Structures are given as structure tokens and as C-alpha cells.
Amino acid sequence: MGRAGDAGGGVMTAPLLVVGEALVDIVGHGRSKNGAKATPGGSPANVAVGLARLGVPTELVTRFGTDAYGDQLGAHLFGNGVQLAPGSVDPGFRTSTATATLDAAGVATYEFDISWEPPKLTLNRGCPAVHTGSIATVLEPGAAAIRDFLAGLADRPVTVTLDPNARPTITPDAESTWSAVRALAGLSDLVKLSDEDCEFLRPGSSLPEVAAELLTADRTRCVVITRGGEGAIGITRTGQVEVTAPAIEVVDTVGAGDSFMSALLAGLNARGLLGETRLQGLDEEALREVLDYAVKAAAITCTRHGADPPTAAEHPSPWNA
Fold first, then answer.
1. Among its keywords, does the record have ATP-binding (predicted)?
2. Coil, helix or strand for 154?
3. Per-residue pLDDT at 321
């Protein structure tokens, strides 16, 4: 499914940059692998595809091989209009996989076979935002490269967004993982978490309490927390907004959070809040609008199998109507 329309709407002279893993999801029901299906995935790659489908020019810095899974990934990314940064396709690299097991409600749990070391990270002039997160931000040696890259963006006219997308099977120590998240959040303008992330990383803390911890960093201006079928909340230093999710029949939740992130970035871009503005002007009205757009994108994804984010034709932008 290719791109359709232009939900981006913002002014940019270079693609939005996404940094992180691209892998193949092997999705099955229960313990049996009979009938398991291999589909392109990886949270950052899903975000890149979601952005491109919504009409936002997007470049992905990742690494995968030229094996059968890598060919599948490449065809998927190119077919959806995602640009790949130099070095992202490496003939000497074995493409990573994630085995996703769905329960009776369609909720996925994951086991990973992954290694991560990105190619050289550079920022193109005019890039409106850098997004990263998930395994790429905790798995060495690539995680160190991302930390150094984000630290070097402190004085650059670009918005940085982070989705930790906690994976307890990879980082079971919640305390050390939270410390790593805090460090990256301090280099980011916006942090997106799920309620499940919060439960794992800060057990016993309320969602506003988790957000308040992150907002103590000088750079961080907004924390967004998704709550599955209940919607999402957005918290800044000056206020909090809440949006509800539409009632749907869930097929599975694979990629829903990534679709949310893509639409959130597309909405912020359309509102002119990325780039050198770094979310200045993100008032409660604008935050509510972009959260509503993002929640509805995630809901569309939940109505179909796998990480299949909507196009702009399926999910028109209210800012370009």
C-alpha cells in the first residue's frame, strides 16, 4: 500500500529522519508456529512507513542484510516511499527478527533475535525532526551511537522525539532501563510512552507522575502516554489534555503504537511545530488535535492484521482539508 495525499503540511527542505531497527515480525497465535507469517516490522521502521503513507517525506537510518528477510524489508520500505540512509542495506549483515505471539485478544508479546549497529548518523540541513526509540536506544553498540548523535543536536534547529517502547525481554532491569530512558528523554523535546511502558519502568507511579519526572529535563516540553483502547493523554509543563479512542473491533495490536507515533509527528508537522520551533506554540488546543489524529490512526491499524498504518487517503489530515 503506497503513499496517498499529503498529510505532512509543514515546511521542510529535507526528510524527517527516523533512526532505529528494521526487522521482520514472525507472527503466530499461541505457542504453535504453524501458519506463522513473516511481515516487515521494527518500531522505528514502522514509524517511518506510517509517516511516508501520511505524506511526510521520511528517511530511515537502519541496518539489515540482503538475505530473504532483508529483501522483504527493502521492498516494503521502498514500496511505501521511505528513503533509506546510506549504509542501511549491508550485504554482510544478518537481518533481525522478532517472533510475535498473539493471545486470544490479539495482543502481541515478542521474542527477539536482533543485533544493532547503525551506519553513520548525520543530520541534513532542513530536517524538521529526528525520531528514535525502541530496541535501538538500549542495545549496544548502536545505543551509544544514538546517544552521541542526539547530544550533538542540542544547538541544531531540529525537534527530537523519543518512543522508548520498553521491551522487558531485552532489558529486564526496569531501574537501569528507566535511567537510560531519562538520559535520552533529556535530549528530546517530546517523549511518547504507553501505559504498559510506565507500568514496567515506574511501577506504582501514576501516569502524570511519570510525565512529571520526564518534564524536569530542560529540553523536554511534552510527554504523551497512550492507554490502549482508552485513548491517550498529553502533558506539558502548563497543562494536560486527554482524548478517547474510537470504539473498534480489534484484530490485533501489532504496530498500533507506531501508527500513533507516525500520526502524532505528521500532525505536529502540519501544525508547524517541528523544526527550530521545537514545539513552541503547542497549546492545549493543538495538543488535543494532534492526539486525536494519532489515536484514530492507531485505531485503524488495530482493525487489520500486523503493522499496517493508514494512508492519508484512509486517514485524511484535518489541517489540509
1. yes
2. coil
3. 56
